[in-house]
Batch of 2 targets.
Target 1
Amino acid sequence: SSSSSSSSAASSASSYSSYSVKAKSSPSSAARFAVAHDTSSSSSSDNTYVTDNNNNDDDAPILVPEKHPSAVAASIPIEPVEKTISRTGVVPKVVRSSKYRHIHAKPVMKSLQYDNLKVQGSLSNSIVRVNSSFFSVPWTGTGGLLAVIPHTMTGRLPTSVPCFEIGSQLLDFDIHPFRDNIIATGGEDAHVKIWKVPSEGLISKQSSSSSSSSKGPATAKNITQCEIDMIGHTRKLVTVDFHPSAENILLTSGGDSVIKAWDVEAGKEVKSYAPLPDLIWSLSVNYSGDLIAATGKDKMLRILDSKSKSVVSEVASHTGAKGTKVTWLGNKDKIFTVGFNKSSEREYTLWDSRSMAAPMSTTTIDQLSGIMSPFYDEDTGVIFLAGRGDGSIKMFEIEDDNSIHYLTEYSSSNPQMGVARMPKTMVDVKACEFNRFIKVTDTTAEPIQMTVPRTRLEYFQDDIYPPTRANKPAMSSSDWVSGSSKNPTLISIAPPGMSPLSSAPAPVKKTGAGYVQQMQEDKTPSKDQVMNKFYQMTMAYKESETTQTNSAHDGDEDDEWA
């Protein structure tokens, strides 16, 4: 073996060249070379291994040490081998800057929640509506009951709750945006009724205490007489929505596929739009108040002009058979819809109201079956999606370039029957709470706070609290009926005496110049010092014992010889 190794080392150039010729002509030689000489691995030594061409056994190639091919590169041309690098890792993306990336959502403490509710969940649209004074939910019972619960009535509600009794099955309702004590309802009998909440409320502290102290269940006295009863639809009511910027204007749609506008103060119909081909599922009014977006059972999205009372644009929206919801995106002239596709997957779509030939984007959300309701915050660009039967509220951010980014979601184990967004004036500005919702189940209602983590809380965070909608109408009912359009009135929600963050001085950074370094000598003995001292004490103790023992023995010997 030593002789063959030396002969191979002596004829390295010739053996390498003969191998190259054989590798090009024989596939088996190329295969043996791939096993014996791995070109993809790097070696730090000058020697490499190639197959011995004198070996006749194809199954067991013999590796012979030889000099690196670069040593004979001048005499033998070698074609470079192209290396393919396979990437197995994930390339990190650039982190998008956002003020609302770390939204923290949590329910309020248990003592500030509402218990012992009896919510009727058969309504197809609204399950809960809320304003700055109370929230309203449909109540279990006959006659179409609607309960009005003040925000101050926290804890366990009385067993018997007085309600508005509309006289037929309640199908939808809404609260006046500018007058807290006015509620509109729509029922199976096609009547639109206006109700007025008493100043003391339907539920009082006295009724709560008397109900809890009584031995038997107390019988609540419902209110059956409404303020105004308006008749115009020929079939049952489907949607009931107040106009967000025009005073005393109520928009309704029914099973007759007609959208009607009512003046709730005068108690009469002021507009009736052209009938649509099929049932209407959802309505939304744009920022200036002159356009209405509507989705229907025929899977179409339509825009209706309030002045001409006709459809100005329409397009096929979601292809699924379940309900679709729509909302305008503030002053962006964009429309946001949520619905289902053919595979019964929930999805959202962004539309440009000026060009609705095709959607701007469509994204699948999940495969749950609950109909989702969108809640858009015009001030921050954050949209919240809450599905019926879900235990979560999903949050997305819609930027100025019309891109939609997922932020986070609030999750809980209790499925919700409905969710409503509270007015912006109710948020805790000093805690950086930018939105608050009320989540309703069949027996409970819990407010959910959405906060943004911030520092320097002593200042008003005006970058996340721009001017918001005021509790005042932008135009009168007569102006809107005549075809006027006007942007909503805006106010600031800055607390009095709180300076805005934009005008606050820059925070002072702590530097080393303001600190005086004090040098103190560390007199604590080190480990070596302790061990050395212990060793010295041990040796001294042993030496003292040895000296005492020797002196004692010396005395004994002297006594013995004496």
Target 2
Amino acid sequence: MNIYLRCMCILSMISPFVWANRPNFIVLFGDDVAWGDLGANWNPNKTSSDTPNLDKLADGGIRFTDFHAAASVCSPSRASLLTARLGVRNGVKALFSSSTVGGLPLNETTFSEVFKAAGYNTAMIGKWHLGYNGSYHPLGRGFDYYYGVLYSVGNGCTDHPGMTVPPLEPCPRHTSTDGQMGSFLDCEMEPCDENKVWALPLLENRTVIEQPVDLWSLSDKYSNKATEVIKQMGSSDKPFLLYLAFAHMHVPLGHSSKYTNTSSHEFYGDTVREMDGIVGSVMEALRATGKENNTMIWFSADNGPWVSKCQYAGCQGPFTGEWQETIGGGGSTGKLTPWEAGHREPALAYWPGRIKPGVVSDSLLSTMDIFPTMAAIADVAMPPNRKFDGIDISDVIFHGQRIYAERALFHPNSLSAGTVGELDTVRVGKYKALFLTGQDFKPASSCGGKVGPVQRHNPPLIFNLDVDQAERNPLNQTSVEYQHALRTIQKAMAFIKEDISNDNTTIANYNTDPSCRPCCNPSNIGCRCTDKYFISL
């Protein structure tokens, strides 16, 4: 058992009076959602917003405009959300494949483990992507209940593939298992080296209930399950924590027919509207429990838009990474990259009666701040004997404090170039320094496949984001401003290196074994089945 959980066992005897005074938490987390996808953030043409429900939460709470994912790719970003620690500390620096043996190291403690030990009911719906085998499964990481697709929706074939570039073929229905995986799966991010087709599964707890899953109805399933879970947990005297990790907006995209042609932003916009519709269902279910006023809701996402997917990628807003396009030789400036659109995310917090409505904060914040802030609000101790990159931002949320000039955020290499997990990009206040640019990884290309050459910068490129959100013009290296910014950057880099060297860090197990993949019927092509089969993950 995790040391922290052993120390917290006594909390299982907390009185109902204490439970009643602790708030509930709902963490809504998108996949490949762009900063400009949130209507409250970006709507220069004054069209109908694709996110009316999220916009209402933003209007009724606090919206963060300078809020960042902890990495520009999903597994490291999600590990950091759950632990409040960068990948160089928690060991998760790269993607876990669908056949990964390990996952988020078991000696790292998640927010779900902490809140469960503190007497909370906990549930997760949606994408996990942090290990699936045995104790690496969500049920082994502090969640009482799990429902969802454990991976990205591109990690397995489906009978009715969603929309992506290039298009995918449906799962085969013949009995041979000699088919080439690459014609059915998006092999850019998922190693397709087993030479076999594997159908994407939907699980409830540890049971495969649909394989292959229907992507076009998946969000309806998530919406219905979220409603059911909130109703069930809301009827208890114990507080609850729900982590809802959407499948949207990761390709391949599919949505219910009721959203067809509802957006002025074509198919992608229709899908954004479906994601937002889940938010509406969550709020309706929460209000039905009578616990809205005692529930704090967060929304953000794991990384920015996957630019190489062209019309199926989101809106970067003003964060276009112009230097990479004009000077750096082209390529993506979104997901997988250190440019702003890769990690700056839409974000908000909502809690009626506690958070002043209509507040917009430009504090420099991170998804890693969510865990420490929830812990402080609930008066729950953070895990001992480790250091955290996230901070408690309660004063920003409740008292209008601005955290900016003094805050440093470090953006790890996220597959576009360099050694994964290394900290070659740093932001301190208004200044952002890039020591590495370009792409040597095909999925980090622009729409059309262009990549820029990998370049090391020593001294680094430094941008003043207060006046150059597009990252177009780096500061002149002979200027007084550059020299001042460089000294600040160097101090931040020296501090983080020393801090990590004195911390308890871990290493994740990335070994793979095809037998680790959930398979409800091994005798059928792609594990296809229609009935429930129990499997141990």
